[in-house]
Design a protein that fits this description.
The chain is α+β, with helices and mostly antiparallel strands. The protein has helices at residues 2-10, 14-21, 25-33, 69-79, 83-103, 117-130, 132-136, 142-158, 166-182, 195-207; strands at residues 11-13, 42-52, 55-67. The chain is built from ten helices and three strands; from the N terminus they run αβααββααααααα. A hairpin with a 2-residue loop joins strand 2 and strand 3 (55-67).
Amino acid sequence: MQLLDYLNDNFISLSQLLSASGASEQELRLYQLNGMMPKASYVLNLHLSCNSFFGHHQEQTECEYYAKGYLYWLGIVQANADPEFIYQAFSQRYQQTLDALKAQGYQCNDEKLSTKLAEHIESEWQHFLSGSYGLCTRSGLPENIAAKELAIAQINELTRNENLGANELSALTKAVDLLDKASACFAPHERQRSSRHRLVDEVRRQYQLVSPM
């Protein structure tokens, strides 16, 4: 039940997505098929067994759960269902977020976030469409995805050295806090294997960083 509680608290079901957006399931599937709308982040195959006054009942059902931010993204798709426009919207928002964060002092030397950014965003787009980022970021939207990738790259660079100076520790603290804000909590069965556990919880423990209140 922990998994269901987590999904119901942090995601929206297929029926909720369709109801809130006014889209039909056929329209959603077409948007997904044409590479504009992400797939579900979690798909549950449930075998239900029920006992009541009327006797025993069994049925099987499939439940799809989507990141809450996907409702907003579906609105963008509904307004202009052109695959190239939708991709450019993703790419521009990704780049704008990186630019804003770098202007705030976040930095890394990873070429995928500089000289090879175009290729990197194309790869990120495919992960976005698969629903993967709906699972591991808070919103599933390009802003959280870009923040997550930049934070991870900076954390990985800084933690190659266990003996950090004051300036490096300050930068590491900021990067970990950024990742904390961008990352999802993850489902109970995923947490020990998640990037949040490895790069937020464990880095704070190892470097004795103070968590924000």
